[in-house]
Amino acid sequence: MKRIVILGSTGSIGRNALKVIKNLGWRALGLAANANVRELISQVREHKSAYVSVFNPAAASELKEILPRGVKLLAPGVEGLVEMATLADADVVLNAVSGSVGFAPLAAAIRASKHIALANKEPMVMAGETLMRDARRWAARIIPVDSEPSAIFQCLEGLKTDDYSPAVSRIFLTASGGAFYNHKGDLGKVRLAAALRHPTWKMGPKITVDSATLMNKGLEAIEIKNFFSVPVSKIEVLIHPQSVIHSAVELKDGSVLAQLSWPDMKLPIQYALTYPQRVGSLARPMDFFRLKKLDFVKPDFRKFPCLELAFEAARKGGAYPAVLNAANEAAVEAFLKGRILFTDIPGIVEETLGFHHSRDAAAPTLAEAVETDQWARAKAAELTGSLKRKK
Ligand code: NDP
Ligand code: MG
After folding, report:
1. pLDDT tens digits for 333-354?
2. Can you tell me which atom of ligand 1 is nearest the CA of 122?
3. pLDDT of 284
4. Percent of the chain whose predicted confidence (pLDDT) is above 70
5. Among 59, 148, 152, 378, which residue is least crowded by beta carbons within 10 Å?
């Protein structure tokens, strides 16, 4: 039995993870969220967790009043997340918060040499190369939870190296296509509710919007480049509407390895927790006769400019991916609040990238990535504000 800490337990990944942990008969030792006190308290009761934290200070005060005796409430804000991520009695830390708020707890878990199950892709976009280098230095183990990096990780596992580039000729990064892949009309007129209707996955709002713009695939390409040290030129995006092949790898000799399963995050979550062990899971058995066929389509870079912006940022390197990520987070937040149109998102990201002038292609340090994130977030918010006034 292992003891797990979940950052973001009330979210889509967090809730699935609790089902997995329950099925394994393991313990959810610590749970952290932002402000959803009601869900968190019911999780703490059900899973008999020993530690809890919420980012939002008002939610922390509320939680304090109703917490079962013996449960330790950690500090609000990033301090509590970092403490949770480094608890000495936790065997695995699942980072499943949404956005760059997961950066500091991830960096701290790495320094504490933890086994980390990583769903939170944004930090890996901001400074993935440096985080991976630190993970090697501190002997931390990072196992991807995101279904595509997990698939690639599983395909590459047999190679037993940190430098996959010489053996890998191509990575086929699959994408469902998101809410608007078959949309024929003006994307400027789409409503928020339509953007939040994902065809195959049920996820939190930020990543669902990222899937609709295809930015999610761009972020994943950068995450994969950093995770496996493979140049982005070797990554090819395939729209695969069935979401059954979670990604594939072509090796130097021409052999292609893929990982297949029905779309269900419980499987990659479980593998990231139990790695390197394989144990029975809640996954529905594959049925090829029911599946019948697998389709693949080239992505439309003109219809979904975010994908091109992400690949360009990855090619430029340096702090460009951190700028892209922060500007995207700010733009998506504004879209979720109804302040901008769906089609404004790539414009804001592109403009923010245009303000970042750097020839330095070296991987940013963690401090540089955080500084860039703050600058780009403020810049994008400013651009979003001026856009609103013009309307
Ligand atoms: P959700 O929006 O569903 O959940 C986010 C979780 O993070 C919630 O528990 C939320 O708490 C918590 N949270 C948000 N902000 C903070 C904060 N400041 N401090 C502490 N906790 C916070 O997101 P998802 O589960 O969909 O996604 C989580 C991460 O996993 C993202 O990075 C996403 O890209 C990645 N991912 C998700 C997949 C999925 O299937 N959902 C697939 C692959 C990757 P509260 O409820 O209180 O707001
Ligand atoms: Mg994914």
Report:
1. 999 999 999 999 999 999 999 9
2. 32
3. 96
4. 99
5. 378
Structure tokens of 153? Answer: 């990780």
Bridge-based pairing of strands 245-251 and 256-260 is antiparallel
Q: What is the pTM of this model?
A: 0.97
**8: phi > 0 → left, psi -120 to 50 → alpha, else beta; which?**
left
Contact 273, 115 (CB under 8 A): no
Q: Which helix (H) or strand (E) holds 82?
A: helix 77-85
C-beta of residue 229 within 8 angstroms of C-beta of residue 163: yes
Kindly state if the Cβ of 299 falls inside 6 Å of ligand 1. Answer: no
Does ligand 1 come within 6 angstroms of the Cβ of 34?
Answer: yes
Domains of the chain: 3-144 (3.40.50.720), 204-211+309-391 (1.10.1740.10)
Q: Please give the angle made by the CA atoms of 350, 340 and 189, to the nearest 5 degrees.
A: 100
- Cα(267) to centroid of ligand 1, in Å? 17
Rounded average pLDDT over 132-151: 98
Q: Which residues contact 305 (CB under 8 A, 6 or more apart)?
A: 346, 350
Q: Which pLDDT score is estimated for 123? A: 98
Three-class SS state of 49: coil
Give the phi and the psi of residue 385 in degrees, each rounded to 5: -60, -45
CA proximity to 108, closest of 76, 83, 141, 77: 83
**Torsion (CA) 367, 368, 370, 373 in degrees, nearest 10:** 180
Burial class of residue 309 in the structure, from the number of CB atoms within 10 Å of its CB (0-12 exposed, 13-18 middle, 19+ buried):
buried
Kindly give the distance from the C-alpha atom of residue 66 to the centroid of ligand 1, in angstroms, as a whole number.
24
**Cis before 276? omega within 30:** yes
Question: In 233-255, which positions are buried (b, 16+ CB within 10 angstroms) versus exposed (e)?
Answer: ebbebbbbbbbbbbbbbbbeeee
Segment 94-120 mean pLDDT: 98
Percentage helix, strand, coil for the chain under 3-state DSSP, each rounded to 5: 50, 15, 35
pLDDT attached to residue 160: 75
Question: For ligand 1, what atom is nearest to the CA of residue 54?
Answer: 20
CA of 33 to the centre of ligand 1 (A): 9
Quick one: CA dihedral 291, 297, 300, 306, positive or negative?
A: positive
